[in-house]
User: Which sequence fits this backbone?
């Protein structure tokens, strides 16, 4: 599972583009976890501001 | 027409790709709806705002939408030597720095004038193929509505759901996306702001480059793009370091922080399915070498709008017909993107020493145009070993 720090997030959607499971969505200005996360780490790596962490 | 089908075209996304597709389609008489999930068009900006002057073959760039007309590009090696490329022809690849918010709003205004409907704060959440087209579930201000359209256009950016949900492609891999951070800064002193500035090198920006794109009045977009699989540090980290190390940014202040992911992938073989076409970043049409996406999005939008009209007239919106879009966009955008993808793959492997020697090899060259194509062609002419790696730059 991942956690998105909404205070750090730059609302860019790069994480959504690299998610293989459609588990993320940029809803308005917020990144939401909307599906099953497989902990691949792609979103964590692509995030320009390190706003995403894996448990 | 089946009475349940409300639109010829529903376009998801109100950026340049969606707006221009909508304008062309509406002009050709199609009933068109553009939906944008944000509450305003053009904001937040996720872009360095540079575009080549060729854009004017398609769009009239209004005075308010133009921040700066630059006269050249300065490219710095890791050891901080530089070469200048001066703009001497109208085919410049980076000649204008835009005010994207104004630019985007003007494009949507043009689509509206041509007859398109626009809904803001509207998210397209589900898509279902039907006999006559596609049923699209829209969430507008929290309330769901379902509309049916003959064709769905995914112009929904790097975070495209249309492409993934319609199984046209999978996610972007970590070597197919640049992770970007940018500050709009004011009070810049001691650098020529009639030029754009590009910095390459594995210390500065692993797998990418840093840029200064002037916006007039001592302001500029100062940004950086890195390949996420080449480093543990974030784009923001590299940008902060870049800013701290530049004397001319010492007293500059940040007016805006901008983040983004830019596809730098090779062209999709297929960007269509039954009743669906993808345009712009959602179709990974940004230039893999420069990251520039606006001009390609506009070009693709024109083709998509025209093919939509032809398909609806022929009463066939299935994949076999929409393939026309793939054929035309591959010819107009894809070939160059394929070549630039190969160049990107090569440049990413070069060490700082190799980059230093390549850039110094160009010190005596005078460029005839401000284009990346010419830059790479000159590099290959001067350094023939490169030609084994990348084809197609020299005719």
Assistant:
């Amino acid at each position: 599972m991942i956690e998105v720090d909404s205070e750090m997030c730059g609302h860019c959607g790069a994480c959504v583009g690299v998610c293989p499971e459609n588990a993320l969505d940029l809803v308005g200005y917020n990144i939401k976890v909307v599906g099953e996360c497989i902990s691949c780490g792609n979103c964590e790596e692509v995030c320009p501001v390190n706003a995403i962490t894996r448990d | 027409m089946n009475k349940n089908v409300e639109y010829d075209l529903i376009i998801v996304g109100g950026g340049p790709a969606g707006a221009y597709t909508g304008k062309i389609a509406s002009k050709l008489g199609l009933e068109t709806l553009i939906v944008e999930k944000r509450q305003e068009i053009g904001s937040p900006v996720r872009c360095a705002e540079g575009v080549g002057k060729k854009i004017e073959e398609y769009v009239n760039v209004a005075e308010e939408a133009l921040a700066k007309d630059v006269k050249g590009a300065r490219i710095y090696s890791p050891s901080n030597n530089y070469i200048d490329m001066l703009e001497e022809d109208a085919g410049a690849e980076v000649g204008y720095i835009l005010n994207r918010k104004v630019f985007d709003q003007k494009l949507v205004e043009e689509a509206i004038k041509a007859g398109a409907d626009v809904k803001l704060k509207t998210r397209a959440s589900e898509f279902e193929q039907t006999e006559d087209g596609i049923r699209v579930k829209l969430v507008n201000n929290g309330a769901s509505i379902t509309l049916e359209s003959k064709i769905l256009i995914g112009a929904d950016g790097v975070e495209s759901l249309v492409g993934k949900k319609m199984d046209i492609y999978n996610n972007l891999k970590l070597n197919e996306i640049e992770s970007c951070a940018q500050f709009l800064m004011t009070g810049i002193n001691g650098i020529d702001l009639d030029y754009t500035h590009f910095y390459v090198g594995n210390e500065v920006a692993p797998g990418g480059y840093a840029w200064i794109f002037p916006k007039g009045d001592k302001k500029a977009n100062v940004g950086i793009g890195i390949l996420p699989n080449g480093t543990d540090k974030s784009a923001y980290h590299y940008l902060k370091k870049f800013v701290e190390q530049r004397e001319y940014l010492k007293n500059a202040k940040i007016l805006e922080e901008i983040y983004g992911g830019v596809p730098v992938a090779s062209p999709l073989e297929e960007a269509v399915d039954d009743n669906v076409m993808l345009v712009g970043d959602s179709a990974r049409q940004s230039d893999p070498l420069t990251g520039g996406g606006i001009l390609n999005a506009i070009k693709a939008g024109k083709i998509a709008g025209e093919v939509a009209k032809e398909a609806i007239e022929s009463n066939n919106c299935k994949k076999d017909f929409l393939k026309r879009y793939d054929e035309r966009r591959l010819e107009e955008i894809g070939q160059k993107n394929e070549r630039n993808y190969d160049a990107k793959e090569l440049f990413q492997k070069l060490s700082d020493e190799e980059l230093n020697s390549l850039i110094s090899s160009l010190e005596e060259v005078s460029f005839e145009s401000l284009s990346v194509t010419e830059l790479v062609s000159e590099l290959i002419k001067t350094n023939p070993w490169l030609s084994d790696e990348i084809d197609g730059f020299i005719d």
